Amino acid sequence: MRDLWWNLSRATGIVATVLAVGALVWGLFFSARNTGQLRRPNWWLDLHNWLGGLALIFTGAHLLTVYLNDNSGIGLVQLFIPGTAGTGQWGITWGVIAAYTFAVAVFTSWPRKRLSRRAWRAVHLSSVGGVFLAGIHAFESGSDATKTVFEAGLLAATAFFAYALSVRVLALIARRRAR
Ligand code: HEM
Ligand code: HEM
């Protein structure tokens, strides 16, 4: 049983990371209007919303299975309060903060029209830092972090992250220059 929760915690962590990177890339491409001709921009936005919602659901499953794994040393306090996992456990702290940024991104997006655009965007963009922290968390806390295939996956995710972010920043600069 112990192995079951441990295996599930690793699997859900990996799926949550892939979904979060997908949400981030789709969100940045949509906002940069870098969506090509094949699909309408709304298709990209809808997919972004789904990826973001699913990333939060799998993060929830990750937290639950980490908690159920007796060997993880993570209780309710460590799950919800950053910095309580003990010395040398900074990796867990990054994971806790990342989970909060995803929850905030998702739960402020449904009542989005009730918030000012500026405030919503500032809050929403904290999830960019969250995805970055989730990557560091995976690298520092994961038992698979020393495996080549895991490291290659993290490297590929970082490359997608960096590419999408530069596309967004360049589009922002171009738009400002055009004004
Ligand atoms: C883990 C979850 C999520 C992440 C990491 C994420 C990340 C992002 C990022 C990086 C952008 C680009 C913002 C910019 O460059 O200005 C974006 C845009 C957007 N996101 Fe999310 N998001 C998430 C979840 C959601 C959800 C669940 C919804 C809605 C239900 C949503 C709605 C939007 C909308 C409407 C935009 C377009 C903003 C615009 O340019 O008009 N996001 N998101
Ligand atoms: C309260 C927040 C979190 C806690 C307490 C937590 C806890 C943990 C623990 C204890 C491990 C080590 C599991 C093991 O390999 O033995 C782990 C690994 C991992 N976590 Fe989290 N995590 C949190 C948030 C997140 C988030 C938000 C993501 C990504 C969206 C994530 C993705 C991962 C990944 C990819 C691994 C590596 C799995 C592997 O080695 O195969 N975690 N987490």
What would a concise description of this structure say?
The chain is mainly alpha-helical. The chain is 77% helix and 0% strand. The protein has 6 helices and no strands.
Task: Describe the protein.
The protein has six helices and no strands. It is mainly alpha-helical. It has one domain. Helix 4 packs antiparallel against helix 5. The protein is globular. One protoporphyrin IX containing FE binds next to helix 1, helix 2, helix 4 and helix 5.
Radius of gyration: 17 Å
Order of helices and strands: HHHHHH
Output the structural class.
mainly alpha
Share in β-strands: under 5%
Average pLDDT: 94
Domain tally: 1
Overall 3D shape: globular
**Number of separate strands:** 0
Distance between the termini: 61 Å
- Which ranges are low-confidence, i.e. pLDDT below 50, for 5 or more consecutive residues? none
Name the helicity range: over 70%
Bound molecules: protoporphyrin IX containing FE
Biggest beta-sheet profile:
none
Features:
179 residues, 6 helices, 0% strand, globular, binds protoporphyrin IX containing FE
Describe the secondary structure blueprint for this structure:
Layout: H1 2-31, H2 41-68, H3 76-80, H4 90-107, H5 117-141, H6 148-178
Helix pairs in contact: 1-2, 1-5, 1-6, 2-4, 4-5
The protein binds protoporphyrin IX containing FE (2 copies).
